[in-house]
Amino acid sequence: METTGTFDSLVRAEFRPHGTYLNTAGNGLLPARTVAALQRAALLRAEGRPLTPLYEDVEAARAAYARLTGVPAGRVAAGASVAAHTGVIAAALPAGAEVLTAEGDFTSVLNPFHVRGDLKVRTVPLERVAESVRPGTALVAVSAVQSADGRVADLPALREAARAHGTRTYVDFSQAAGWLPVDADAYDFTASVTFKWLLGPHGAAFLTVPEDFGGLTPVLAGWVAAERPWDSCYGPVAELAHSARRFDLTHALFSYTGLRRSLELVEELGVTAIHDHDVALADRFRAGLADLGHAAVPAPGSAIVSVPGLGSRQPGLSEAGIEVSDRAGHLRAAFHLYNTPADVDRLLAALSG
Using an 8 Å Cβ cutoff, are 233 and 30 in contact? Predict the structure, then answer.
């Protein structure tokens, strides 16, 4: 972004929230351009026109996500959920392998390892993940930013510890990609949904893998995972895609059509500018909370602020036109590009009443 004015004008052109929306950690708002693309896609279906443009949108969205996360598009698989991507990684581990996870992390990052039944899943507090990697740890799996309270993982320390012990790394960017600069190339596997900070519709998610696929088997592969998908609609796939597309799941075309436009906006604004905007608002809220005598969960540098003991205020705030979340008894506020200092002050005023 060149100027704050340009940032603000782009945002005003795309978003007109009803009330005060501070729940991006649950669902991001859709930009106007995304809504328009979804409407056009629906008309194609309604009128029986060719859907070729929608398949082109999948590849454009894949390329945009690759740019945002710092990897070649050939290392990005397009899917539908983090849980499905985690399942592919879990399926590749040998029986008895140790997986190190963070206490209270989001279920989609954890559960596929647990349901295997023959893996050793070890759980430690988030701040102890890096120091808990040990010889024999096959994989460490963690969210870059914790969904429940916004704590940011010490990923550089995790990466170094994993390298020292020959441990694979799996990072979920779902609560990070879109406001926090991320580098998927620094980890073996990463995944992210796109309906939160990346402002897309539900039904689209990405997985990044190493050039050599990191030992993964495309156990969920269908026709779209073939090198020549339209020649692979019947019978077993004769030749899997030579890229990470071999891990694609059947594309939710409308979702990817909308997502393409959402990612275009994120790139136009710039993740660095979005980060600075979001964190400044979160810090304003933290300071205001302290003035009111409330202490947020320590999460320096996060766009998510979680306040213990105030989760019960969520229904009343919603009735007042202020949308936040109740997570584990905490009031969770998430600040994104369409929010303003006035939104922060309105929430603080409501909490002081």
Answer: no
User: What are the sequence ranges of the domains in the chain?
Assistant: 4-30+269-352, 42-268
Q: Chunked in runs of 10, what are the mean pLDDT values of the chain (353 residues)?
A: 75 95 98 98 97 97 98 98 98 98 98 97 98 98 98 98 98 98 98 98 98 98 97 96 98 98 98 98 98 97 97 97 95 98 98 91
Tokens matching residue 132: 């808990």
Radius of gyration of the chain (CA): 21
Measured distance between the N- and C-terminal CA atoms of the chain, rounded to whole angstroms: 38
**Amino acid at position 187, single letter:** Y
Q: Does domain 4-30+269-352 have CATH number 3.60.20.10?
A: no
Query: Mind spelling out the 3-state secondary structure of 216-267?
Result: CCCCCCCHHHECCHHHCCCCCCCCECCCHHHHCCCCCHHHHHHHHHHHHHHH
Instruction: Read off the DSSP letter of residue 197.
Output: T
**Hunting for tokens 């302290």 — which residue is that?**
290
Q: Taking the domain 42-268, which CATH number applies?
A: 3.40.640.10
Give the integer Cα–Cα distance in Å for 266 and 263.
5
pTM of the model: 0.96
